[in-house]
Amino acid sequence: MDGIHLLGEWYGCPADQPEMLRADALRRRCLDAVAAAGLTTVGERFHQFEPQGVTGAVILAESHLAIHTWPERESVTIDVYVCNFTTDNTAKAESVFRSLERTLRPKRTRFQAIHRGGADG
Amino acid sequence: MDGIHLLGEWYGCPADQPEMLRADALRRRCLDAVAAAGLTTVGERFHQFEPQGVTGAVILAESHLAIHTWPERESVTIDVYVCNFTTDNTAKAESVFRSLERTLRPKRTRFQAIHRGGADG
Lengths: 121, 121
Hints:
The structure is a homodimer.
Chain A: E1 3-11, H1 18-21, H2 23-37, E2 41-48, E3 54-60, E4 63-70, E5 75-83, H3 90-104, E6 108-116
Antiparallel strand pairs in A: 1-5, 1-6, 2-3, 3-4, 4-5
Helix pairs in contact in A: 2-3
């Protein structure tokens, strides 16, 4: 399936912000970012690590968002993957990605954008 | 965070098998593959598209599995991402990936393995 997958590794994220620490805070930001971008959430699941840290996924009609925080390392990994089945959703994926980057405020980032699919897709 | 991310695009998957069509069937296979590999499920969410097709995610202590089926195109995309925080989980990720590939039986595949993280990870 033709699509775009954005992968981020974020470092130096302030570890004391609620979105790094607590599942409910990060979940809310993710759902808001998806809605603001015009993508469609069809389900979500977030897990609270104790004493801190979050892992979660939002499944979309257009594919998925996945995010993991490691407050003890001030690091985050994020994936935003959208298929471009009936329309090009690339700009919407970038909107979600950048919105969460503004929230989590990494000092250093590594970014990859991967084209998925191909002749058969 | 240092880790390995396996991405697959699968084509020519027989569209009449339950795992392509129904969320409950695919969910069961995913959870079984994760458990058999020795990875730890901390949550999961699968969505049934109507009339057919599935999208879902399993969130792991070690990161995530995400999978999407398009029976009408006989195609699947799959992501298995594991961090190698305290131990190298690469072989476990490959086990999950290959298990689901055997289940869904693609005739043609595209595979990428992406190293995530780096000097800061």
